[in-house]
From TrEMBL:
Family to which the UniProt record says this protein belongs: Belongs to the glycoprotein hormones subunit beta family.
PROSITE patterns, per database record: GLYCO_HORMONE_BETA_1 (PS00261), GLYCO_HORMONE_BETA_2 (PS00689)
Gene name per UniProt: Tshb
Domain Glycoprotein hormone subunit beta intervals: 21-125
Localization per record: Secreted
Record bears the keyword Glycoprotein: yes
Protein name per the record: Thyrotropin subunit beta
GO molecular function: hormone activity
InterPro entries attached to this UniProt entry: Cystine-knot_cytokine, Glyco_hormone_CN, Gonadotropin_bsu, Gonadotropin_bsu_CS
Amino acid sequence: MRPFFVMSLLFGLTFGQTASLCAPSEYIIHVEKRECAYCLAINTTICAGFCMTRDSNGKKLLLKSSLSQNVCTYKEMLYQTALIPGCPHHTIPYYSYPVAVSCKCGKCNTDYSDCVHEKIRTNYCTKPQKLCNM
C-alpha cells in the first residue's frame, strides 16, 4: 500500500504543477462618456483564473528571470466596437474593447493588459444603463 500512496502523491504534485485554471470568462464592462446620456453594459470575455507560480522565498539563490510570476493572460484576442447611445453629434460614440478567444499562463504584457489589480476602481454605471449584446 505504501508504494501506491507515494506514487499517487508524486502524480498529484506533478499534475498540480502543470495544471492551470486559466480560461476565457464572461465579464461585463460598463462604459460611459461624460457627453453621452447612457452607460453601456457590454458582455465580453476576459482571461481569468489560476496559474501556478514559483515561491520567491529563495530569491537570493535564483536568477532574476526565474522570479517572474505567471498570470492568466491573452493567448488570442480580437477587438469589437460598440456604439454608446445618447451621444451628441460632436462626440465619437464608439468604444472598442478586447474579447478573449483563448488564454494562457505567462508573463503579463502591459501593451494590452492591466497587470495591476486596483481595488479602488469599480465597474459600475452612474447614468441610465443600456445593454449591448454582441
